[in-house]
Amino acid sequence: MPINIPKNLPAGEKLRQEKIFVMEEDRARTQQIRPLNILVCNLMPEKEKTELQLLRLLGNTPLQTNVTFLNTATYASRNVSKSHLDTFYKTFNEIKHRRFDGMIITGAPVERMEFEDVNYWEEITEIMDWAKINVTSCMYICWGAQAALYHHFNIGKFELPRKCSGIYSHVITDLTVDLVRGFSDEYVAPHSRHTSVSIDDVRSHPDLRLLSYSEEAGPFIIQSKDTKHIMITGHLEYDATTLADEYIRDVEKGEPVDIPVNYFPNNDPSKTPKNTWRAHSHLLFYNWLNYYVYQETPYDWHFVDDMIEYHI
Question: Where is this site: Important for substrate specificity (predicted)?
């Protein structure tokens, strides 16, 4: 089934070239079905790249999805044109009256800051609180995962001695959980961050389940026991060259960064890296959309509102 995107979104043509089934809004409105409505709060600086990465994964399932992009009102993005934001993004005030089946909050380049010092922290916490009632299931990526762990579960982050960057091996703690259904016993995934969370804090929290971790990179896939919150501390959505682009950017800035581990062939940055995590990226998003969104979300949100009003 297709993913429904705004007309003329730049990612659309690239998705078509990759044979991802996309449908623009005008055509989608003629379909006599109930598509899933997914909200993407995109906090990454290069928004168009992140749009493409996430749409590629959301569009490769049998479920038809409508995607709404959300941008912060309290911070003006500098790496994307205002016209792109005005055309393809909404602010929270514009969508908070709606219900969504799923929501994704991406990473953000603010991980070294205290959460309360981030200038859009109050806005993000308002969105996360709103989502408790208005969204069936939320997925949080990298800094988004740390923000959710801090806000919802009071688990803080700590700075690493060196940036965690590269492709790391992970294991699954329970293969019977729907989110990791079909995963290999051991698989690889990208990480790119300066901070982490304590694996012991996650394991000991009564409302959380640690589903996957890396001996080197720490906790990776964390799920709340009510399945409303899915925290992914790495970047399964990354393209093959994303870590290379980040490494080159950091080197040009003069930052003391190491070559991403297990990434470049022969550890040589002049060689083109391969995507060795693609299958599990698609599997994770497929499982989330199917088991945690589609299977759980109400067909008619108005019926839920009526039931809440009745019980009140």
Answer: 192
